[in-house]
Design the sequence.
């Protein structure tokens, strides 16, 4: 096949991105377990992954740039490299946010917690992790039909976000938790919501990779089509 | 047909007299941003070499004041097709074309159309620079002179050389032979020669394929200026060149060996090079075949 070595380089780059994605997935798994079980040492083990992910991200960006410079990619190849860079950014950011959460967990170990708020956080972490993993799976398998469903799943995270923020703003008289923990909980809620968004965006990037269309445009067309049908 | 008849035929074909065209394109070589240049329309074109059908069923709107690039694997009929656009294909013994090709509203294959006039209105620049064995000045002036140009020849030569982005490099050596120029300069001289007869459309068949990168860049820059005043069609094997310079791109393709070439996909260049509709186009522009 012509351009065999170029294709091999694209495959290797994609494989490397997925490798980083799986590592971030493990970090998210550890973060969730540390939150759920209060395992302070598990959270502490995750400290420092941010630097590693950023270094891997920089390597992937460099490899992608070199391929663009040397191979002058167009069409599907160009979209792949563009998507690889976007997905890499989402992975690195998700890894960094996961470490921020572990940092908060480690620093507030043993602090008194609001059980309802903690339950909301655990559920958010589980859902955000699932969305992230699914986004990565959509990218790996180019399974764009699931990308739209992923946006719907993100609605659940948004609801949990509202619920958690409500609990933070309106603590119950009994068991409100330590002020330091509540403050960190507010940040963790925000970080988890962002991780879920990164997962959704990875799915959306895959829609662009496969179709050349922005998922927002595809969604708009879909919505307008339904509206027109209703009018008929 | 006599020369004066050809001049009148040219005016009839384009609806614009030479004086009007010279005025609207401005003096001193400044591209005038002319919006009245004519486009072309091709309908169900087929081209033959004897009984062999080399190109079939090509329909294409060639937009005025735009660069249209034709790409595709070797032997798919791009050069044959572009030669049909100014009736040069029929110069080859046994070669003929069917279908319609219009410049503006005029069918260039209509009975009574003079191919010589057509070729003046729709100029051609070839792959290999082919200056005449004459001075730089005469290379540009010759075509206009034999077509009955009566105006200020010095002005026409300067204007044409400026439009071809060559004036500054040759203005002090106009009496030297065209062969004294570098390959890239010779090609721009050929472009100036084409411009001197005031065409509506410029066809270019791989104009930079024999040139070094710097000369290629100058030709590409020239094309960006030329499209302000002319309609440009270019055949190129250089995918990045098509992506850089053209507004529209047509991909020619042969389904099976021995079949005639077809226009497989035609769209805005940014579409062809970012998200083509057809797999074969994608495979070609990404270098998976061809």
Sequence:
């Amino acid at each position: 096949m012509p351009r065999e070595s170029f294709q091999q380089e694209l495959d290797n780059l994609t494989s490397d991105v997925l490798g980083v994605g799986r590592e971030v997935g493990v970090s998210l798994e550890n973060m969730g377990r540390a939150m759920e079980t209060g395992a302070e040492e598990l959270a502490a083990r995750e400290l420092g992954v941010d630097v590693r992910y950023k270094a891997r991200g920089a390597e992937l960006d460099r490899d992608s740039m070199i391929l663009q410079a040397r191979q002058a990619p167009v069409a599907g190849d160009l979209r792949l490299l563009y998507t690889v860079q976007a997905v890499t950014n989402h992975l690195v950011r998700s890894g960094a946010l996961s470490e921020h959460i572990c940092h908060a967990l480690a620093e507030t170990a043993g602090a008194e917690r609001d059980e309802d708020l903690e339950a909301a956080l655990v559920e958010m972490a589980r859902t955000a992790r699932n969305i992230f993993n699914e986004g990565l799976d959509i990218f790996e398998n180019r399974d764009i039909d699931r990308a739209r469903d992923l946006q719907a799943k993100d609605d659940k995270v948004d609801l949990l976000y509202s619920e958690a923020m409500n609990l933070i703003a309106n603590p119950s008289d009994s068991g409100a938790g330590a002020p330091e923990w509540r403050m960190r909980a507010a940040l963790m809620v925000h970080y988890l919501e962002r991780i879920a968004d990164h997962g959704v965006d990875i799915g959306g990037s895959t829609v662009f990779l496969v179709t050349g269309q922005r998922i927002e445009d595809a969604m708009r067309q879909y919505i307008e089509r339904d509206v027109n049908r209703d009018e008929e | 047909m006599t020369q004066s008849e050809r001049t009148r035929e040219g005016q009839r074909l384009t609806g614009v007299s030479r004086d009007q065209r010279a005025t609207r394109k401005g003096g001193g070589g400044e591209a005038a941003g002319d919006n009245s240049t004519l486009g072309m329309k091709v309908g169900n074109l087929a081209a033959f070499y004897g009984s062999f059908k080399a190109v079939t069923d090509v329909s294409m709107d060639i937009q005025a004041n735009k660069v249209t690039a034709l790409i595709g694997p070797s032997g798919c009929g791009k050069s044959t097709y572009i030669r049909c656009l100014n009736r040069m294909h029929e110069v080859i013994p046994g070669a003929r074309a069917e279908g319609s090709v219009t410049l503006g509203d005029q069918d260039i294959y209509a009975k009574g159309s003079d191919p010589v006039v057509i070729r003046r209105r729709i100029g051609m620049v070839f792959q290999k620079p082919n200056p005449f064995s004459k001075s730089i000045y005469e290379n540009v002036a010759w075509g206009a002179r034999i077509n009955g140009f009566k105006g200020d020849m010095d002005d026409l030569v300067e204007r044409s050389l400026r439009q071809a982005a060559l004036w500054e490099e040759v203005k002090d050596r106009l009496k030297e032979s065209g062969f004294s120029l570098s390959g890239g300069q010779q090609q721009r001289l050929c472009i100036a020669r084409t411009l001197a007869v005031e065409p509506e459309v410029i066809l270019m068949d791989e104009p930079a394929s024999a040139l070094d990168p710097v000369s290629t860049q100058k030709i590409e820059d020239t094309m960006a200026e030329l499209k302000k005043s002319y309609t440009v069609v270019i055949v190129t094997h250089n995918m990045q060149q098509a992506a850089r310079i053209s507004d529209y791109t047509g991909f020619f393709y042969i389904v099976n060996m021995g079949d005639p070439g077809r226009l497989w996909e035609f769209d805005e260049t940014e579409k062809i090079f970012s998200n083509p509709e057809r797999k074969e186009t994608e495979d070609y522009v990404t270098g998976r075949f061809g």
